[in-house]
Amino acid sequence: MSYIEQVRAEVAARNAGQPEFMQAVDEVLTTIKPVVESSSVYKNNAILERITEPDRQIMFRVPWTDDNGNMRVNRGYRVQFNNAIGPYKGGLRLHPSVNLSIIKFLGFEQIFKNSLTGLPIGGGKGGSDFDPKGKSEREIREFCQSFMTELSRHIGADTDVPAGDIGVGGREIGYMFGQYKRIKNLYEGVLTGKGLTYGGSLARTEATGYGLVYIVENMLNAAGNGIKGKTVAISGSGNVAIYAAQKANELGGKVVTMSDSNGWIYDKNGIALDVVKDIKEVKRGRIKEYADRVKSAEYHDSGKVWQVKCDIALPCATQNELDENDAKLLVKNKVTAVGEGANMPSTTAAINALQAANVLFMPAKAANAGGVAVSALEMSQNSQRLAWTFEEVDQKLYGIMKGIFEKTAEAAKEYATATDYVSGANIAGFLKVAQAMIAQGV
Ligand code: NDP
Fold first, then answer.
1. How many A from CA of 214 to the centre of ligand 1?
2. Is 125 a known active-site residue?
3. Which of 82, 172, 189, 437 is the most buried (most CB within 10 A)?
């Protein structure tokens, strides 16, 4: 049995019942094989055993009261995965599907993503199975405060710096920051994604979506192409999806689909983003309302956006939302590029089908790293007690995404094939963390 197979078997045995985590581990272990097998240094330092086991997994009770006075309990998580290259960094997800497997897959991927940004940030992730949908302002606030009451013991500006993710935007970060400050009597950059009046960075809201489109544009440019004139299918209608759509339109693409967990819209004239923003960011409504307001749009409550003919597909909702059948449909409809805005939105079989059909495929670790990169820039600004302009941050974001593309493409060329960006991103991300772990000893 090879070193990789042996570690894979041990990780599977130790983490039974964690399919998402194993999916993420399998993808990394399979693709870093050429590097790991090129030198005994990785085995001698037990790098794979150590990188697949979190430094710390914290699970805690989150009690709160609903508007009817009933006491409710959710489970909170923070997985501090690896801090070889910087303080733990990664978002907090509030969604009923959250469990340890999902938080661990996200935390594991975050190690490599954060490494790829070139910034000094380690990997972590957290959240809760609390469902924010349908909750009142007061219920959200009380939940966030209770969650932070426990989380505050484990985090800090130089220890672990959480951010937003599904279900956690500026409002939730604000409540959590307020509670942290109250408990610790410390005004420090302990969370990112903060409001602009209290230490947030300009362009953080836009960063993940913009970054996704920047790297897809770089990938297309390398193939002698670009986004201009292309039809783009996007899933989701949250933070990542909205700003990916905005930047894709700015670069001359035409975004024709968006979705939420109830259904999806197709607008042949191109999605009117001001309407989507009003529904989602202002009214916190459902995407269905778009079709009530825009005549050229269709609403579907079954099927997926991937059945629409497009040149570029950007999955920006959640994990495993694009499966093998969806990939085959996209290929049949002549898609040329797929960029993952969400974390692990494509199943392994879908990635294989897309790559086999020579579709340019940019994996999440590289493609959505713009969000955490600007979070790291928010940390820098907080430490310096400075605030940079939107243009300064956006320009840095562009440079970081270009750098990620170049590192990914170089590693792909050296260890796999020139456009195998899945291997390229995993290898480039892994090498830096592994070198730091070796340098620091056990
Ligand atoms: P939001 O909560 O703002 O939006 C999520 C969107 O995806 C909503 O439209 C939501 O629909 C939909 N969605 C969520 N869960 C499901 C589901 N189970 N089935 C179908 N649709 C679903 O989250 P973000 O935009 O911040 O995050 C989207 C993805 O991007 C996630 O995978 C996240 O981990 C990843 N990501 C986010 C970053 C960020 O900076 N925000 C950074 C890097 C990655 P509904 O409203 O109906 O739930």
1. 19
2. yes
3. 82
